Amino acid sequence: MEGMDVLEEMGELTRRGQAFAVATVVWRQPPSSSQPGARAIITAEGDLRGWIGGACAEPVVIREAQRVIKEGTARLLLLGTPEQFGAVFGSVPDGITAIPISCQSEGALEVYIEPVLPVPHLVVVGGSPMARTLASLAGALGWRADLVRGPDFDAAGADERSMIVVATQGHDDEEVLKRAVAVRPVYLGLVGSRRRGATVLGYLADRGVPKDELDRVRVPAGLDLGKTTHREIAVAILAELVQLRASGALRPRVPAGKARPAGHTASGPDRPAQATGPERPAQATGPERPAQAVDPVCGMTVAAETASAPLRHDGVDYYFCCAGCRQAFEKDPDAYPKRETRC
After folding, report:
1. Portion of the chain with pLDDT greater than 70, in percent
2. Most exposed: 32, 103, 227, 239, by fewest CB within 10 Å?
3. 201 within a domain of the structure (yes/no)
4. Beta bridge partner(s), residue 109
């Protein structure tokens, strides 16, 4: 995959709302097999599509790309030995991450990795002026904002990464909220008073909706700004969503059986803390990637598999980036510091 193929794949992942990173080679030192401008896509699951270099660079780029996706911050990498960089740059500039790798080619790379994260998706259910204002404000932020009437709302219009605000204001609130709960969105808020919210949630609890799902509904939705107008309520709701996203609270749920992140609460004056606990949903993944190991000679991260020239020494399995590192280790294992072999 290269050129337009990479761009088309980026567009497809973006349309599907999947997070990924783009790695671009901006400098090379021969005889590295890559070239400036070479580009690859790395998914959150660690699948690499495209070309940025050979077996020495690929595991490091995948690992760093996954970190970039998680942190949401771009990173510039220098891959090679400090001596190679010193000969070209004099020293490693501030803000650049230098990662020594040891390859038989003796090449080096500079790779820029940037995250491409899904656009936030907000579904506003209702037809009031407040609902229209909220959808409009979210659109002004560059979010994908859908405004739907209560009778038209169904699970197909949202997913686990969506934020849903139910603003039906007494028009079949219970049924709409029941359908919204089933989506298991990262955020679910109900516009209304605490008394009205307690009535709606109690009705759903009596009809078998799980308590842990109902506990995640924020009632009333939005920051507590005191007595406000309808338009100001829209601002308060959007402000809460921005605040929760910035804090990292609006993350999808973890698969069942795995540890879940701590819940996030936000409360204002006279407002009880409400459990939000947005959690990571089970996600479809591709074939499981092999475990990773650290080359004891050069410190490079490699796949812990047969292709990485494994060698057992003193009851420990070691893996190597290339035959040269393996030969050096075989010649004098005690010359290299003991490292954690798995990572």
Report:
1. 80
2. 227
3. yes
4. 28, 79
Q: Which residues contact 283 (CB under 8 A, 6 or more apart)?
A: 252, 255
State which residues form the domain around 215.
121-247
pLDDT per residue as tens digits for the range 19-50: 999 999 998 887 767 788 899 999 998 999 98
> In this predicted model, what pLDDT tens digit does every residue of 82-109 receive, in sequence order?
677 666 666 777 778 888 766 555 678 8
What pTM did the predictor assign? 0.60
Task: Give dist(CA 187, CA 164) in Å, integer.
Answer: 6
Cα–Cα distance, 298 to 105 (Å, whole number): 14
Residue 286 belongs to some domain of the structure: no
Secondary structure element (H or E) that encloses residue 48, with its range: strand 48-50
The answer to whether position 49 is within a domain reads yes
What are phi and psi for residue 157, nearest 5 degrees? -90, 0
In terms of domains, do 55 and 85 share one?
yes
Query: What distance in Å separates the CA atoms of residue 117 and residue 278, rounded to the nearest whole number?
Result: 18
Query: Does one domain contain both 207 and 133?
Result: yes
- Domain match, 87 and 145 both: no
Helix, coil or strand: residue 163 = strand
Using the 3D structure, point to which of 116, 147, 177 is the last residue of a domain. 116
pLDDT digits (tens, 9 = 90+) for 175-216: 999 999 999 999 999 999 999 999 999 999 999 999 999 999
- Reference 146, options 171, 93, 172, 183; nearest CA is 183
Which DSSP helix (H) or strand (E) runs through 189?
strand 187-190
Tell me: pLDDT of 17 over 60. yes
Nearest CA among 68, 54, 58 for reference residue 97: 68
If one counts the domains in the chain, the total is 3
